[in-house]
């Protein structure tokens, strides 16, 4: 059955089906771009896909996403995509993660994946992915659309240019959804139609498949212009001042803990040296306070906007960048720690890293 399924692929010069079957690819964002990329990789025979996206399926997604169905409106995008892929490509291993990148895919997972593909719709999200891939020297491809085209940017050499190298310091610092007293919302992303999304996704998947099969790839940006019916290559250069080229040292065996992101704070504390301070990659919410009626929710959680249960006004979070003072029974995943995360730990003798297990 498997041989029949991939019979035409075996006729392609350089095609290596076994390499694809052994491969793991993390797809960050499963909207219009991520849908088509995931579909192509699954049909090509990639063995394992990690799908990461925090959003749910909306009616407006259906015009550009082949993996979503009308009856899936309201479901998590990653679960809807995984359900369709499982029926389309029997035997594929799927790991859906309904979370933003930092909470969805740990650094050790990015490090060990054969390829990471960013199908994101904002600069800040791309900068975040570039930073995390840079920490573990993970090869990745960034894809983005414009109304009639888009760009595909392969970052396959950790010592070469990265997405952040093309930005100024101010551009690197812009957040997606600022939590400020102005309560500003992020600007909507530019739209792209189904043909543009599919075209850019096909280019992206083609490069990824070649990398997975150890075939040569021109590591230059591909700019696709649907209005003029042409595509071109653009050279990028590394910025010597880019801060995203300082990777984490390899984690020694004794710092790879038999604890997962579902462990409690108490379990993690017991596994570490006395007086250890566990640092987080993103702030956790220590409490949320209503500035209208004064209601305070002091349960630790991920930072998110939510209304006051008493008066409906927004609750404003007070955050922490470490787990000091967190309840012992609090699970790491409840404050956004991802599966197989690498965390920094501060002790009286300095800062070191620990790696969490998958389960």
Overall description:
The protein has 359 residues and is an alpha/beta fold. It has two domains: 233 residues, Rossmann fold; 103 residues, no CATH class. The protein is 24% helix and 23% strand. Helix 3 crosses helix 9.
Query: What best-fitting shape do the alpha-carbon axes yield?
Result: globular
Measured by DSSP, the beta-strand proportion falls in: 15-25%
* Helical run tally: 10
CATH class descriptor of the largest domain: Alpha Beta
The structural domain count equals: 2
What is the ordering of alpha helices and beta strands?
HHEHEHEHHEHEEHHEEHEEEEEE
Percent range of helical residues? 10-25%
| Spatial separation of the terminal alpha carbons | 33 Å
Q: Top keywords for this entry?
A:
10 helices, alpha/beta, 359 residues, 2 domains, 14 strands, Rossmann fold, six-stranded antiparallel beta sheet, eight-stranded mixed beta sheet, single chain
Question: What does this entry show, briefly?
Answer:
Helices cover 24% and strands 23% of the residues.
Question: Any chance you could write out the topology, listing elements then pairs?
Answer:
Layout: H1 2-5, H2 17-21, E1 24-28, H3 32-44, E2 48-52, H4 77-88, E3 93-97, H5 101-104, H6 107-112, E4 115-118, H7 123-136, E5 140-146, E6 149-155, H8 169-172, H9 194-212, E7 221-225, E8 230-234, H10 265-270, E9 277-290, E10 296-297, E11 301-302, E12 315-322, E13 342-347, E14 350-355
Parallel strand pairs: 1-2, 1-4, 2-3, 4-5
Antiparallel strand pairs: 5-6, 6-7, 7-8, 9-10, 9-11, 9-12, 9-13, 13-14
